[in-house]
Amino acid sequence: MIVILRLGHRLGRDQRISTHCGLVSRVLGADKIIYSGEQDSGILKNIEEVGVRWGGSFAASYEKNWKSAVEEYKRKKFSVVHLTMYGQQIHEKIKALRKKANILIVVGGEKVPPDIYQIADYNIAIGNQPHSEVAALAIFLHEYFAGKELGKNFKSAKLKIIPQDRGKKVEES
Amino acid sequence: MIVILRLGHRLGRDQRISTHCGLVSRVLGADKIIYSGEQDSGILKNIEEVGVRWGGSFAASYEKNWKSAVEEYKRKKFSVVHLTMYGQQIHEKIKALRKKANILIVVGGEKVPPDIYQIADYNIAIGNQPHSEVAALAIFLHEYFAGKELGKNFKSAKLKIIPQDRGKKVEES
């Protein structure tokens, strides 16, 4: 089971980036995203609606206290992977991480609480350069699932895209 | 040479997502990003400043008319790859695309002009599901460069991260 924890969400300012984190987690094979920071029912509703239309069983929830969320998953024997530009490079760690069936992936917001570097089992960088938590999450999941996640079948989808060379084809059921 | 064209940027609303597109392009081995839509000197400045501090020669510019930008790169014999959830799946096309040295990667904004599906040489999906242009761009570049882009050396960097198991270490020069 792969769970994402998005730290430090801020209403308004982070809405789109945080929504992208949720949608990317869903499409790249994760099971759930937990948002921390400011409570934002709009995001949870957005992600739920995407699930209703596009299928699958991805879940989104809110947890005020990120540290208790991490501790809960630690008790459940999840490995905690914090994605940060300051961490060890992904290619050095991904083989070991692929052997772990249960991972809590933590992605920061604008300001990351310093504790997370200590609490995490792994601090992992997708390039030791500033870029994007959305991209870091995407590449981590893509590497973890070794590309197989893109063939995932989303059950009970109302909408299904039929890939085209040009234009759009969507089947509705 | 890999150039990104970001369509339909809107001031304010798209600022962070468009900035992430630029930073992701830079870190994952592209040479340049061109923004279209509303002109936003703040984004160009942001990306330039990241380059000054973190090294490399990545460039960002603005082009009012996206179609003339595409035509210019077509004349220069670039392959035009439009990333869209409606396109053909990446794993079916990436081997052929890796053989092309010059690619213009087009990523849409909220509303994508329908012409681009026709003008592009390839319409490529990173999962036929809604998610994020930042993530699609990241996975495309990561696949195109086959992971080697993460070892890229950014020349003349003032700041350099020394990867750590815990905490942050940055060397300044």
Layout of SSEs?
Two copies of one chain form a homodimer.
Chain A (H helix, E strand, L loop, with lengths): L1 E8 L5 H13 L4 E6 L3 H14 L4 E4 L3 H10 L3 E11 H9 L4 E5 L7 H5 L2 E4 L7 H12 L14 E3 L8 E3 L1
Parallel strand pairs in A: 1-2, 1-5, 2-3, 4-5, 4-6
Antiparallel strand pairs in A: 7-8
Question: Any overview of this molecule?
Answer:
Two copies of one chain form a homodimer. Chain A is of the alpha/beta class and 173 residues long. Chain A has one domain: SPOUT methyltransferase, trefoil knot domain (Alpha/beta knot, 3-Layer(aba) Sandwich), CATH 3.40.1280. Chain A has six helices and eight strands. In chain A, the strands form two sheets. In chain A, strands 3-2-1-5-4-6 form a six-stranded parallel sheet, with helices on both faces. In chain A, helix 1 links the parallel strand 1 and strand 2 (32-37). In chain A, helix 1 (15-27) runs parallel beside helix 2 (41-54) and helix 1 packs parallel to helix 6 (133-144). Chain A starts with a strand and ends with a strand. The model of chain A has no long low-confidence stretch (mean pLDDT 97). At the A-B interface, helix 1, strand 4 and helix 6 of A face helix 1, strand 4 and helix 6 of B.
| Spans of at least 5 consecutive residues with low confidence of chain A | none
Number of strands of chain A: 8
Q: What is the name of the CATH architecture of chain A?
A: 3-Layer(aba) Sandwich
CATH superfamily of chain A: SPOUT methyltransferase, trefoil knot domain
Count of all domains of chain A:
1
The helicity of chain A comes to: 25-40%
Helix-strand sequence of chain A: EHEHEHEHEHEHEE
Question: Hey, roughly how much beta strand do the residues of chain A contain?
Answer: 25-35%
CATH topology call of chain A: Alpha/beta knot
Largest sheet strand order of chain A: 3-2-1-5-4-6
Please state the structural category of chain A. alpha/beta
